[in-house]
């Protein structure tokens, strides 16, 4: 009975998380305001020392406007004593933790895994924040607006060690999209988009054989893609017409739990299912008949872009997080990208029709921790809560109010509602075109380094509604608006939210096992996928050998450890 109740709770939590993302057609109250914790500004100035693992952005945290803003709002001297990045940064952090020296008061970002975060919490290096967070207004509101948030930040020991970073991205939720060249849909298909995998096959055959570019040469490429870009491989989109697949092959390097789902409370590895075999068989047919570009799994992003940009429009169908032929798209100006239409998820031969769906992450790079040596833990946590407010979110993400952004309720938001804020383009420039910070009264020389924080080292309250409250000149051209509308269409075909494998916390032992399984089982699945599609392996005669190899690599052990961690996650959620 308890298991059924826990599953129901999880289902409702995930459903609300996705529903919140999809419902923001008008700016609502599910976004932070200008609330300032009552303790600020402090009567007496204090200093909080800070460690930050800058995720290779190059930001200068020692001389940064956000630290000035914190001082103005709180009377806290936010003193960054460690600003490190990359492998060298990890080494410095590890040496610091066990050096015996006094730790910095705050770890702004560490790039720790959940297992590492829980380990350092259990060793007393960072403190649990559960009690300190209870009276944090923004914290409680963010958990209400983003129902999956608290569970994502709760470790398997029941403690919360990180405040987390709320940076919801609705269009990332359904990023494995497909775009189709509309002029050829018009000329070859009467303007009707393919709705099934069979109809897509028929359309691709027309592209290959009917010379739609009219140059008298069969040089059209019906379908292409590449590995290494933003959801740029074709496998994820196509396979979800046969079986649920959350494995985006941005490269052949796998990610944790890629290809797994939850079915009736059980962890299931879909990359060994019969549905996945059928998907590979379909894609192999496209490849053998020259309908899927032979360069798909070998070309670089630059090579793919060069093919897409060919003036004869050689490619008819392309996957990707954004538009094919998209230089003008990213600059938000008219261009070839407007000839490309979003292709909704296709129905497969067994009636399967799904869109890749992921949950937002609030844990990020382990953001907002308080060390056990901090003299002012209550103040540190209240500072985190201030940062996640309306102004704090925009200051961290964009920079200075009045220079980089401003408040407004005029015009149209990116979803067509009433806006709350808009980006600004600073007009004071140096001779070489950079922002003239000295003219604005700041002793900086670089456009990028000093006025805000990197998104991976920020404590924001950037809910979906907050993002959607941006004023834009024309939603038809705005990047975020176009991608938001695409996600709305794909959301109609979202995975059953109770079937999505969440980012559960793992113990140290589980993390070690999963790391091994990810580079064995996961890597083999990705490599075999490419080989099956290209014909290097035969889907009909080599499938059993593939399953046997998975068995030798202990795929069942991978399933078991994920199940163990998932069950612990459910138990923590029900407390």
Describe this structure in words.
The chain is globular. The chain is 38% helix and 11% strand. The protein contains 21 helices and 16 strands. Helix 12 packs parallel to helix 19 and helix 19 packs across helix 21 (555-573). With 575 residues, the chain is α/β, with parallel strands linked by helices. The chain has 2 domains: 2-171 and 362-469, D-Maltodextrin-Binding Protein, domain 2 (3-Layer(aba) Sandwich), CATH 3.40.190.10; 181-356 and 501-573, D-Maltodextrin-Binding Protein, domain 2 (3-Layer(aba) Sandwich). The two termini are 15 Å apart. It has a 4-stranded mixed β-sheet. Strands 6-9-5-10 form a 4-stranded mixed β-sheet. Strand 1, helix 2 (65-74) and strand 2 form a beta-alpha-beta unit. The longest helix has 27 residues, at 508-534.
Q: Brief overview, please?
A:
This protein has helices at about 1-20, 65-75, 85-95, 115-120, 130-135, 135-145, 150-155, 170-175, 180-190, 195-210, 235-240, 275-290, 300-310, 325-330, 375-385, 390-395, 465-470, 480-490, 510-535, 545-550, 555-575, and strands spanning about 45-55, 75-85, 105-110, 165, 180, 220-225, 260-265, 265-270, 315-320, 340-345, 365-370, 405, 410-415, 420-425, 460, 470. With about 575 residues, the protein is α/β, with parallel strands linked by helices.
Give the tags.
575 residues; 38% helix; D-Maltodextrin-Binding Protein, domain 2; alpha/beta; 4-stranded mixed beta sheet; disordered N terminus; 2 domains; globular; single chain
């Amino acid at each position: 009975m308890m298991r059924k109740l826990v599953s129901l709770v999880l289902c409702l939590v995930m459903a609300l998380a996705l529903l919140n993302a999809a419902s923001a057609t008008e700016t609502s109250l599910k976004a932070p305001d200008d609330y300032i914790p009552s303790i600020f500004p402090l009567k007496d100035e204090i200093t909080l020392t800070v460690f930050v693992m800058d995720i290779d952005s190059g930001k200068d945290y020692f001389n940064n406007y956000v630290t000035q803003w914190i001082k103005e709002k709180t009377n806290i001297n936010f003193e960054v004593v460690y600003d490190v990045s990359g492998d060298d940064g990890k080494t410095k952090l590890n040496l610091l933790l066990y050096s015996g020296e006094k730790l910095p008061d705050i770890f702004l970002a560490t790039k720790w895994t959940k297992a590492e975060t829980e380990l350092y919490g259990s060793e007393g290096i960072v403190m649990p924040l559960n009690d300190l967070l209870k009276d944090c207004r923004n914290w409680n509101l963010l958990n209400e607006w983003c129902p999956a948030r608290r569970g994502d930040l709760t470790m398997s020991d029941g403690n919360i060690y990180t405040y987390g970073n709320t940076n919801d991205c609705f269009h990332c939720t359904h990023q494995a999209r497909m775009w189709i060249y509309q002029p050829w849909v018009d000329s070859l298909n009467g303007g009707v988009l393919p709705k099934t995998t069979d109809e897509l096959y028929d359309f691709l055959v027309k592209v290959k054989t009917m010379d739609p570019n009219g140059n008298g040469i069969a040089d059209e490429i019906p379908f292409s893609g590449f590995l290494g870009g933003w959801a740029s491989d074709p496998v994820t989109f196509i396979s979800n017409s046969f079986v649920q697949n959350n494995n985006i092959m941005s490269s052949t390097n796998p990610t944790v739990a890629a290809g797994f789902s939850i079915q009736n409370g059980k962890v299931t590895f879909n990359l060994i299912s019969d549905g996945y075999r059928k998907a590979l068989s379909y894609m192999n047919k496209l490849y053998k008949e020259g309908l899927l570009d032979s360069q798909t799994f070998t070309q670089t992003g630059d090579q793919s872009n060069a093919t897409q940009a060919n003036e004869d429009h050689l490619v008819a169908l392309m996957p990707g997080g954004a538009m094919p032929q998209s230089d003008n798209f990213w600059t938000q100006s008219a261009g070839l990208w407007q000839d490309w239409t979003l292709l909704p998820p296709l129905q497969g031969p067994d009636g399967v029709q799904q869109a890749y769906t992921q949950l937002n992450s609030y844990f990020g790079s382990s953001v907002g921790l308080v060390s056990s040596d901090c003299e002012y833990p209550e103040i540190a946590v209240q500072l985190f809560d201030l940062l996640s407010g309306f102004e704090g979110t925009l200051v961290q993400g964009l920079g200075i109010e009045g220079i980089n952004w401003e408040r407004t309720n005029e015009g149209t938001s990116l979803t067509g509602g009433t806006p709350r804020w808009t980006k600004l383009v600073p007009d004071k420039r140096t001779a070489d075109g950079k922002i003239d910070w000295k003219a604005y009264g700041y002793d900086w020389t670089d456009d990028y380094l000093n006025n805000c924080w990197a998104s991976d080292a920020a404590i924001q309250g950037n809910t979906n509604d907050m993002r959607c409250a941006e004023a834009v000149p024309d939603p038809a051209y705005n990047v975020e608006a176009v991608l938001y509308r695409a996600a709305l269409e794909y959301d109609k075909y979202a995975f059953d939210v109770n079937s999505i494998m969440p980012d559960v916390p793992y113990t140290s032992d589980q993390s070690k096992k999963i790391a091994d399984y990810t580079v064995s089982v996961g890597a083999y699945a990705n490599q075999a996928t490419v080989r099956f599609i290209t014909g290097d392996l035969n889907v009909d005669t080599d499938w059993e050998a593939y399953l046997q190899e998975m068995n030798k690599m202990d795929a069942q052990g991978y399933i078991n450890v994920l199940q163990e961690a998932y069950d612990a996650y459910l138990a923590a959620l029900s407390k």
